[in-house]
Specification:
single chain; alpha/beta; 2 domains; 10 strands; 4-stranded parallel sheet
């Protein structure tokens, strides 16, 4: 059996247990635009042996592959296996800058189709990239709602959220709909204080931003935003006070056009200001 490691979490990527090393905690964004997209390309080109390959990834991300591939296990489960001498391990989390076989997005000239701004296999792979998520719809809601993405990380902390901004934003959004969901580790206290629903599964996040009842996803330049670019069926508001994103460029991990698979509007904002809150609120009111 070949074990294909597409993400790992030796560390957990949360405040107090953070890491800049992708071989310790493989960032969500790197998997979304890197190992997942490369795996889907290889799968569609017949380069993956479905019978003799098992996908290994962080448990919360297994749904990225379970709809399109039969053999998927968590990184923790993989570490408990008793492997034989005939088993093969291929670790894609080491395919970063400077490796002999880097992830495809690291070479924009090859990743972006010549003469366009799109991923070079956009037509061939879009369905698996955009719809290839195994969703179980555990959250029951028929009313309109918002989803917020709030970043609180030790890593690159200058990109973190202004929680007062989000408190003010939630107050405004609730004049449109009282239903606000929040994705982002360590935002439980914020949710309690602001009467929002905390999403502790990425699977629920993707489910919610694909439903017609979702008014908008509003988040920051981080892994959940890249995941939204590859799955959302609602308008997106990107709040990027650090200007870390590059929406018009070719760098996938910075949100470049090549991984904007959603056909819905992406609206960038570059400050945590009242003016941004007013613009988002007006936009969402006009939709409804």
């Amino acid at each position: 059996m070949k074990y294909l490691i597409l993400s790992k979490n030796v560390k957990k990527g949360i405040p107090g247990d953070d890491s800049r090393k992708l071989t310790e905690y493989f960032e969500l964004g790197w998997e979304v635009v890197g190992s997942r997209i490369d795996f889907i390309a290889d799968l569609n080109m017949g380069k993956i042996d479905r019978d003799n390959t098992t996908i290994v990834c962080i448990e919360d991300r297994m749904f990225f592959y379970e709809k399109i591939f039969d053999k998927v296990i968590s990184f923790d489960a993989f570490n408990r296996l008793q492997l034989s001498s005939t088993d093969e391990i291929e670790d894609w989390t080491i395919r970063t800058v400077g490796s002999t076989n880097p992830l495809s997005f690291l070479n924009a000239k090859k990743f972006v189709k010549k003469g366009t701004t799109k991923y070079y296999r956009h037509k061939e792979d879009r369905d698996f990239i955009f719809n290839g998520y195994k969703i179980d719809k555990k959250i029951e809601i028929q009313d309109k709602y918002f989803v917020l993405g709030i970043r609180l990380r030790d890593h690159c902390s200058y990109r973190n959220s202004d929680l007062q901004f989000y408190t003010n934003l939630v107050n405004n959004l609730k004049t449109i709909s009282p239903n606000v969901f929040v994705v982002g580790k360590n935002t439980e206290d914020f949710c309690k204080e602001n009467e929002c629903v905390y999403l502790n599964r990425l699977k629920d996040f993707v489910d919610l931003i694909k439903r017609p009842e979702c008014i908008s996803f509003i988040g920051q330049s981080t892994g959940t935003m890249l995941l939204a670019f590859c799955s959302a069926e609602c308008p997106i508001h990107l709040i990027d006070s650090s200007k870390a994103s590059d929406l018009n460029g070719g760098n996938a991990v910075l949100g470049g056009k090549c991984i904007q698979f959603t056909e819905y509007e992406i609206n960038p904002h570059y400050s945590f200001s009242q003016d941004v809150i007013d613009k988002i609120t007006k936009y969402c009111k006009d939709l409804n």
